[in-house]
Design brief:
Elements: H1 14-29, E1 34-45, E2 56-59, E3 66-79, E4 82-91, H2 101-116, E5 122-123
Parallel strand pairs: 1-5
Antiparallel strand pairs: 1-3, 2-3, 3-4
Length: 124
């Protein structure tokens, strides 16, 4: 870079990365007779952002007012001595393809259920 060279970015596909993370999470939980799945919806705050793609307004940490940010949804599988990330998605109500937060939750539940079915574990 000191001689005028530029770095080439690797091709990045969010869906492919999510599928790989989920496969790794499922592998971490393999052999468990019972798995608890914790679904967590949170806000990702970007209080100083002004021009990020599909940015929306989310609650401030102190609860008073709104700041720019995104919603996130994550699912973590938990079994005795085992943990695995099963789903993670950042979304925005201002994105063109946004339907509803309920639809995002249903998408997460379907994805996690499909991924865990081959394990034959009891899922709560």
């Amino acid at each position: 870079m000191l001689r005028g060279e530029t770095l080439q970015r690797a091709p990045f596909d969010a869906d492919d990365l999510s599928a790989r993370l989920q496969a790794h999470g499922v592998a971490q939980l393999m052999g468990a007779a019972a798995i608890w799945v914790v679904l967590d919806g949170s806000d990702l705050r970007k209080p100083h952002a002004q021009q990020m793609e599909a940015i929306q307004r989310v609650r401030r940490l102190d609860g008073a007012g709104l700041v720019p940010g995104y919603r996130t949804l994550a699912a973590i599988g938990i079994a005795p001595a085992k943990r695995g990330l099963l789903y993670q998605r950042l979304f925005s109500s201002t994105a063109e393809d946004f339907v509803s937060e309920s639809a995002e939750i249903q998408r997460a539940l379907h994805s996690v259920g499909t991924a865990l079915t081959p394990l034959g574990a009891q899922v709560t």
